[in-house]
Amino acid sequence: MNIGEIARRAGVSRSTVSYALTGRRPVSEATRRRIQAIIDELGYRPNAAARALKEGRTRTIGLVVPPAGRRLTDLQLGFVASVVDAAARADLDVLLSPSGGEHERSFERVVTGRRVDGVIVMEIRLEDDRVTRLRHGGLPFVGIGRTADPGDMSWVDVDYDTLIARCVHHLADLGHRHVALVNRNADLVAAGYGPGHRAQEGFARAVAERGLHGTQVCCGDDARSGQACAGRLLAERPELTAIATINEAAVAGMYHALSLAGLAVPGDFSIAGVAARHWAESLHPPLTAADVPADELGAQAVELLIQRIADPATPHRHLLVAPPISLRGTTAPAPSRR
Amino acid sequence: MNIGEIARRAGVSRSTVSYALTGRRPVSEATRRRIQAIIDELGYRPNAAARALKEGRTRTIGLVVPPAGRRLTDLQLGFVASVVDAAARADLDVLLSPSGGEHERSFERVVTGRRVDGVIVMEIRLEDDRVTRLRHGGLPFVGIGRTADPGDMSWVDVDYDTLIARCVHHLADLGHRHVALVNRNADLVAAGYGPGHRAQEGFARAVAERGLHGTQVCCGDDARSGQACAGRLLAERPELTAIATINEAAVAGMYHALSLAGLAVPGDFSIAGVAARHWAESLHPPLTAADVPADELGAQAVELLIQRIADPATPHRHLLVAPPISLRGTTAPAPSRR
DNA sequence: TTGTAGGCGTTATCAG
DNA sequence: CTGATAACGCCTACAA
């Protein structure tokens, strides 16, 4: 079923059918109707590959996600959902590409085979060779996250540095003197995962400014690891009264470890962090946290990408968000003694 | 950068370059090497659209997911991850299409514009018009889930009927007489969501066989709703001592409601269900549940789809799994009295 | 208002 | 072993 077949049945030329479809040139009402009737009857749709070949664009964007083997956090899932949603609103399709590990070929195909008009890359590292390759390949792209030298790329990101610093200040204001930062998993941080490092910096800075005693640990991205990690912290640092964290998936486990240790949240121990709102609210108790607006960030990333595709020469744009901390009751004045 | 350019620089014809690339006809080692060197130097990759147009296939499969607005459960996320993974292993790309609601156009584009060679559809309803349209359009597809009359389509599915019945029998064996089924959200079940209905059937049958008192309720797919739902159940049915559920996302909330009511799990109250293993294990306490092998199901769905694409006339195949219930300690003998 | 013709980048058929 | 050439289905000057 192609445009020629429609033209034949309608008794017109292929170009007339094409123009009737795109409206880029006037077509008499009568023939337009006749053509439309046949199209409806046969359920014809233009072949996407042929159109892409002719127009030089695919009306598809790539979304490079962390390798499927590793579980996506609730926040990452939020990004995926909002990107797909925003793309659909702009009549763009989304091609998923797991990157890293064994999936080099997938990334290579998507990026270099002109399968997409542009790419959104998630979970950007401080030094990220996917970014290097995209730059080299000349394909428009936008990061959710940014590299160490983010001047010459477009991105949207969460200001983990500022947010974790704010958490620490908040805890310090409440009288906490011994606080810990629970980071994402060690492999990720070691690989140069931006939020992990920027959270460390913000934490160190705020701890220094307020003259606190700070500890930093990495922790697997799940409840189990959270429990083990918090248990270890409590054992090694009995003077600890508060945790700041960017590891939303581990928080439920931390709660559990605390309750096993006989510590009430927030009476005996405070926790504050950065998380997806949905997740923060569904925890028991709901977590005091800076709520990352994943919807907005995803939509903005698509917006930025659409602009770069339309005009690759346009200056790079950035969006760094630092949403306020929503108090939900997991922070309270430090206990007078333990 | 196209095949002609490579040919020009290598001093050969385009067809020779093409054959050197595909290996579909012998090429002398010398010229093959020369061509390859130039390809490597220029970073050439064949244009996917041109290839798709010529070959009549896109090397891409569509994955139709529930609308992005609604949150995916951990299990659904597992399906997405395993499908993407299995597709990447087969050198297939995955085009994501949110279906339902405002995203009709996306589904239509993917299905009818020859953008993909085949489709995997998630969250199939007993009567599902996406299935109807796919059938009508003649595009190969595989369901994760099945319709009410699943004979003439290929699918992989979880046997919720059997699994929930097993949960009930397990609870009955432990002496429970009053049990409730906590289903997925009411909208979904009302829309004919297969697992919801099949769970109801299995529950009703097992309850009847064992002469138990059963109740069924729907419950939003999140911890909050789980808490509200379990709270309501306990208030209205104080004689209740056990819950069977397919709503993994609500379980944490149920735990909370039970603990608020002063009921210990499993001492005073038992829960058993169907869930992703990862999720069941990360709950506190870990949930006794039939562990759905999302990885296997996703991989099998891709496998089935690849076969259907290769030969659309091949008979339909089905995979219905009923994994054993893993005892993790949320079920115990019914309390002698309450 | 409509038709003709050329080309997007590949692959495959037919010659050599 | 290699080259020329014709499609694949669509869009869009250029003509009429």
Task: Please write out the topology.
Two copies of one chain form a homodimer.
Chain A: H1 3-10, H2 14-22, H3 29-42, H4 48-55, E1 60-65, H5 74-89, E2 93-98, H6 104-112, E3 118-122, H7 129-137, E4 141-144, E5 154-158, H8 160-173, E6 178-182, H9 186-190, H10 194-210, E7 213-217, H11 223-236, E8 242-245, H12 251-260, E9 270-276, H13 277-282, E10 288-292, H14 294-310, E11 318-321, E12 325-326
Parallel strand pairs in A: 1-2, 1-3, 3-4, 4-5, 5-11, 6-7, 6-8, 8-9, 9-10
Antiparallel strand pairs in A: 10-12
The structure holds a DNA duplex (16 and 16 nucleotides).
Note down, in words, how this protein is organized:
The structure is a homodimer of 338-residue chains. The first copy, chain A, is of the alpha/beta class and 338 residues long. Chain A has three domains: 3-55, Orthogonal Bundle (434 Repressor (Amino-terminal Domain)), CATH 1.10.260; 60-158 and 294-321, 3-Layer(aba) Sandwich (Rossmann fold), CATH 3.40.50.2300; 160-292, 3-Layer(aba) Sandwich (Rossmann fold), CATH 3.40.50. The first copy, chain A, contains 14 helices and twelve strands. The first copy, chain A, has helices at residues 3-10, 14-22, 29-42, 48-55, 74-89, 104-112, 129-137, 160-173, 186-190, 194-210, 223-236, 251-260, 277-282, 294-310; strands spanning 60-65, 93-98, 118-122, 141-144, 154-158, 178-182, 213-217, 242-245, 270-276, 288-292, 318-321, 325-326. In chain A, the strands form two sheets. A six-stranded parallel sheet of chain A has the order 2-1-3-4-5-11, sandwiched between helices. In chain A, strand 3 (118-122), helix 7 and strand 4 (141-144) form a beta-alpha-beta unit. In chain A, helix 1 (3-10) packs across helix 2 (14-22) and helix 5 (74-89) crosses helix 14. The longest helix of chain A has 17 residues, at 194-210. Chain A starts with a helix and ends in a 12-residue tail after the last strand. The mean pLDDT of chain A is 93. The interface between A and B is large, with 55 and 56 residues. The first copy, chain A, binds a DNA duplex (16 and 16 nucleotides) through helix 2 and helix 4. Chains A, B: This is LacI family transcriptional regulator. Chains A, B: Keywords: DNA-binding, Transcription, Transcription regulation. Chains A, B: Residues 1-55 form the HTH lacI-type domain. Chains A, B: It comes from Actinomadura luzonensis. Chains A, B: InterPro entries: HTH_LacI (IPR000843), LacI/GalR-like_sensor (IPR046335), Lambda_DNA-bd_dom_sf (IPR010982), Peripla_BP_I (IPR028082).
